[in-house]
Amino acid sequence: MSQKRRKSRGVVDTSVLVAGVAGMKGSVHESNVASAKFVQRWVEDRTFVWLITGEVLDEYREVLARLGVRRPLIGKIVNTLRAKGEHVKLGPTHSLSPDPDDNHICDCAEYGDADFIVTLNPKDFPQASLRAKVIGPGDPLPGRRTTTRRRNS
């Protein structure tokens, strides 16, 4: 009996989305190129389940606007993620990141049963505190976990 391979589940830190958008505009910075390729692969092939919450989408929108991305493009990005991403229902907030502004990313990963968090700032996502693997945009996507690990409370 063949079992359809389930896609891994991930949360994309704002740093990767922003660098990805910048990389698509022709930036030559290496993290931008890796991020652009990461985002482009998802757009073309839906390589993983992109986990989102309202707070994650709000941060994407706010940071892209602050950096001068045109409003129609921001709307297209957010609307695509709203339609194609998986919305995560959150529970109580955890303080898992040394940067309190990144706790919503950690919560999205924890409550969404993410296999990974992709970021350009791994220091803000301590691996020992998270079930999801912390990766960079150029790293291979981890496979889907067959069992969920419990995080120490």
Key words describing this protein structure:
153 residues, alpha/beta, Rossmann fold, disordered C terminus
What is shown here, in short?
With 153 residues, this protein is an alpha/beta fold. It has helices spanning 14-24, 30-45, 54-66, 71-84, 103-111, and strands at residues 9-12, 49-52, 86-87, 116-118, 133-135. It contains 5 helices and 5 strands; from the N terminus they run E-H-H-E-H-H-E-H-E-E.
Description:
- Helices cover 41% and strands 10% of the residues.
- The protein is α/β, with parallel strands linked by helices and 153 residues long.
- It has a single domain (9-135), classed as Rossmann fold (3-Layer(aba) Sandwich).
- It has a five-stranded parallel sheet with strand order 3-2-1-4-5, with helices on both faces.
- Residues 149-153 have low confidence and may be disordered.
